Amino acid sequence: MKESEIQVEYNANDIEEKWMEKWNLSMYHFNWGEDPRPQYIIDTPPPYPTGNFHIGNALNWCYIDFVARYKRMRGYNVMFPEGWDCHGLPTEVKVEEIHGITKNQVPRAEFRRMCRELTAENIDKMRKTMLRLGFSVDWSNEFVTMDPSYFVKTQKSFVRMYNDGYIYHEEHPVNWCPRCETAIAFAEVEYDTRQTKLNFVHFDKVDIATTRPELMAACVAIAVNPKDKRYKEYVGQEIRVPIFKQKVTLITDEAVEPELGTGAVMICTFGDKQDVHWWAKYGLLLVKTIDKQGKMTKAAGKYEGLSTTACREAIIFDLKAEGFLYDQKYLTQNVGLCWRCDTPIEILSEPQWFVRINHESILKAAEEINWCPEYMKTRLQNWTGTMEWDWCISRQRIFATPIPIWYCKHCGEVMLAEESWLPIDPNEADPKKACTCGSTEFQPEIDVLDTWMDSSITALHVTGWESEYELRLPAQIRPQGHDIIRTWAFYTILRSLALESKKPWDSIMINGMVLGPDGHKMSKSLGNTISPEEVTSQYSADAFRQWGAVGGSTGSDIMFRWKDVVSASRFLQKMWSIYRFSMFHLNDFGPEDAEKFPIDSLLTIDRWLLSKLNRLVDAATKELDGYNFDSTFKAIRNFTWEILADNYLELVKGRLYSDKLEGRRAGQYVLHQTMKTLSFLLAPFVPFFAEELYSRFSSESVHIQAWPTIDKSLISEEAEAAGELIKKITSEVRRYKSDIGMALNAPLKKIEIYNADIDTGDISGATNSEVELMVGAPSFEYIPVGVKINMGLIGPRFKKDANDVVKALKEEDLATIEAQQASGKITIVVNGQRIELESEAVVITKEVISDGRGVDILEVNDAIVVIVK
Ligand SMILES: [Zn+2]
Ligand SMILES: [Zn+2]
After folding, report:
1. What pLDDT digit, counting tens, does each position of 641-691 carry?
2. Ion ligand 2 residue ranges (Cβ < 5 Å)
3. CB distance 175 to 183 below 8 Å
4. Whose atoms come closest to the Cα of 184: which ligand?
5. What is the 160 CA–ligand 2 centroid distance (Å)?
6. What is the pTM of this model?
7. Of all residues in the chain, what percent are helix, strand and coil, respectively (each to 5)?
């Protein structure tokens, strides 16, 4: 290999594009057949196909890819599938926007077709970004939830869970988003504080404080605390509601807080979860005053048709006018919002489909799963503990998996699809048999399934559930964000238990969110978003991936900083120049030479480097087993930069350029092993760069090679200590040269080293001087050669005579001064007078003489380094 054949600069984009073209992606395919390797199946998150694979996705995929590539090299049969979670509202809204229609203006099937078309285009765009970032996805196991081949499984799972009693249909209060016009699950409600007004209203007999006067028409009872003396005499009596004039009973309940408002509260159907609770507990009437679009119903009388906010204002106006409203106070309140659109939710009672939640079994399975980081388990446990309602799985939308159900028009019986009829859309096909009553006329279910019903069977899908292969549940790992623990993680555990009585995965790895360069969550409105493409076009995919590796640790949020990308890119350049240097010297040293190289001809510094290299392999292996990408990559970077470049290469240079074969071969062997090992260690993180490095060692891809094993025989405390000494002596000699103003490559007369068991060839090379290892102890003589006078003492004392004192001191015999100094007093004659000086007045300078030569001495650890002048 000629140095000129390897470009001076590492041109990342050219090289990355080259490998994107060259790589045969089938090397990443999972083997479903017999395989001696243990399986490692990743339950990859299927992103929502927005057409934009954002930086948060990209970070998550970096983590997954690090693991996938590492495990492949460790000898696992790895599946890194790619799914697409297609269904849902954002696509419906986008389609309405693009075509300038609303979903009800075109036939259902046509609307679904438009959604599918847009989704397919978006998936294409996102796939390109993933390829550009070098993810080792197994595209032979791609899944698209809108494809019949996938949603047939969602439907099968529905049918089985229905038959097993997990799924039921019931009218029940549910969280409802009036903007999305659909029921949503509790997990999809997000809470935020909002300022509102607490209105104080006279009812007859009692006063009420309420934040939602628009619900007065739906007031079905008044409640007070049983201990509250103020209202004791009215308990059990009828109270008349102002304006609407319905009569409701005053009841008592422990949950009412007497200190809040007036101590008397309206129970309405439904203001909040507490209302639902009381309504069920006391068997109260159900009055529906809000419809599915968030408008007031007929039950609200003259307010019918108003929005809830307009109705609130109107009622407050009327209450004031009629003298019922006597006070208003500001109040900060926790409000439930739709997680998709931030609209305040309502609680409406509607017939819906539900999945029963078995809290104990979910908590038990969570215990059997390895959580990384461990504390994320608590989030799931807390969430499970607070779930009071079952999971509402029906949605009043269109682009989603159809519920395979019809209702008999004659007797109302539910007709559930048989598994053999699936996939099916009940709106497009009739059941293939008659109702038990004999009727063949059916009403299809127009509700559709929650998209989490699709995505919560990914673990089942990727492990071969309902496929031609045997089921391989549990998958080995689920990587996901912490924002969807209570949805995706929770539902997946629930479904795997319900359908297969097994936990979905051995481990779950939670990643953080990406924050913008300003430390805030990235969002379009803050203008702090950065796309992965911006990073790859300005720097490289490998630089982006390195930012992902070193920027944060699993579970914690990570800030995007350009300077991390810049330093990542700088590291690649540095590593490249080391590689270029090494390859130039490996011109006449190939794998066969490495194979038959006699290890015992290594020099100390070679053994030092190989010991450090093997420790690096050991550390990287342990850290990667614990998914600690940041510490792994930092260890690789420190080794390369500090141990290899700053020290080893400097020390071995002399040998590499020398014509003495043996020492040169040893250096070549070390470079060969180190470059090869580094290309393996770097492969999971910077796949393009590592491939380029390895391409000069083999025609095979680095990504199908085995992870390096540790050669314990090469890890040696002794070699490390000796190497450290050589390193230290060399740097002390270099410092010595620079202190006395010598050029670093200028030769010294000779260097003698005492009390050190090392070989000296590399010190000689690095200092360009003759070096001899000496036995025994050096003998020194200190000869006085001059005197330094402390003018700080002499000046003030002798004033105008000071110069004469100095002159006299200089003329005095050095040996005499030294002898007097030892006794504590120096006596000299100045201008005929005897003068006594304290011994601090002078310092005798000495020269070190060894064997009759002038020398300088450096002490390095226990070794004595004699530099002959
Ligand atoms: Zn909404
Ligand atoms: Zn029937």
Report:
1. 999 999 999 999 999 998 888 899 999 999 999 999 999 999 999 999 999
2. 408, 410-411, 413, 435, 437, 439
3. yes
4. 1
5. 22
6. 0.86
7. 45, 20, 35
